[in-house]
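tool=predict chain=A
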Amino acid sequence: MSDQQPTGSDLSPPGESTSDTSPSRTAQLKRWAALDTTSGALLLTAATIAVVWANSPWRDSYQDLLEIEFGPAALHLHLSLADWIADGMLAIFFFVVGVELKHEFVAGTLRDFKLAGVPIVAALGGMIVPAACYVAVVGIGDPEALGGWAIPTATDIAFALAVLAIFGRGLPVALRTFLLTLAVVDDLLGITVIATFYTDTINLPALLGALVAVAVFAVLVRMARRWWLLLLPVALTAWTLMHASGVHATIAGVLLGFSVPAVAMRGERMPRTEWFDETIRPYSAAVALPVFAFAAAGVTVVGTSGIIQPVSIGIMLGLVVGKVVGVLAFTALMVRFTPLRLPDSIGLRDLLPVGMLTGVGFTVALLIAELSFEVGSDSHAAAAKAAILAGSVVSAAIAAVLLRWDARQLRDPDMNRDGIPDVDRDVIGG
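tool=predict ok
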């Protein structure tokens, strides 16, 4: 779903059509914002600004900005700007992830295990092995920091797809679908980890209230469009109650996204999951994610000691080595010992750069780091964030080189070795 870019008419509500077939300037801007390359460039720019500012003579002003507090105290929402961004802005991104997951499970690549089995297992390998790398290093050198075991398990969809779009020209389009499926499953597992392992106490009445609000949203989003004015206040209610419950508020975004129907209804020309994805993705990609990157990536290393420690070594090892080893090993086992095969036009050699791309952790990894260690007072927090940034950059750089190498190699007519000549020969950028 996310590889489709919205056109002017696609941005009209379901069931409506436009007489003007040429996209408006607003539609063109939204289409540009939703591109993989645009999202990746904005993320990188925001992160770079944060890192430069946090290591400049004016670094105190960066921290002061993020520590500004505002919001209604009566609703337990008197939060710092950093918390508003992590809990609020990132919920928009997780809503898009939830919508995408729902569409993939109902109408996309995840609906058929024969097609999705290999990338699903690859995603599992890409989480288990990096976590094991982290535990092996930190368990020996700094056992008190074992709570950050999930940090190197995350994959940043936006960054990974951007690198593939730029450097993967000439490679099969099926490779993008494989990476997208793997990253989507990775996000689902990451969301489960956040909800399960990074929730200290739960306010049960607030949690039940949040689930009721999600249920109301699910009913409204299936009704005629005249009821959709209620969607935003109901969604905000679900988010507020989820935040009050102690469960990370971004989980509300995922649940709300999951509630959107993934099949066309009421005579509409597209499923509502597609419409919500195309409508909200530009704001997620061009606003929510870059703002979060700006707030989370500002690691001060100038004059800071202790950046190199077991935590940073474990994260670097997990992202740069553990990710690619996990993806390749679990995929090889699946292909070797089960009837499942890779999709058309993809061979095991193509998974080497894909495995490296999954080492681009960034967004979700930074979120888990903030949940694992208390930013500002925990010496592990700065080390973890610095390692995430360094590991993601190294993984992206190696993946870019490998993608260009792979694109120059001759391709076999049966790359996935299923005994049937490959039919899907479309290439990235072709």
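The chain has one domain: 34-198+248-408. Residues 89 and 288 are 5 Å apart (CA to CA).
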